[in-house]
Here is the input.
Amino acid sequence: MTFYEKRKFKRVKGVLKTICLIGEAGNPVEFFADSENLSEGGIRIISDQELAPDTQLALVLWLPGHEEELSLSGKVIYTNRSEERNSFFETGIQFLFLSDKNKTAIQEYVTGNGS
Here is the structure.
């Protein structure tokens, strides 16, 4: 049996501290997460929050080698209970919009040119 990679973008594994914000702009709920992997198309995080598919959220993360934080917006694609950490969830998030600056920073990090 042959398997084909369906992902559009190269991913890099690594833990990045991430702040996530959901809810109304004036009163968002903030929680912290660790990333599992990152690509130009999205990020997979581990957190104690079970997020429903299609939930939109804001993310703030810091890439090694970059002085400024990245402010991103995304949409939850899936959430699964973590097999390794029972009280946590693995959540796949698709980025909704990337500024040119954020896109370049992620591309550099993924290809190893930014850290």
Q: What stands out?
A: The domain at 11-111 is CATH 2.40.10.220 (Thrombin, subunit H). The chain has one domain: 11-111.
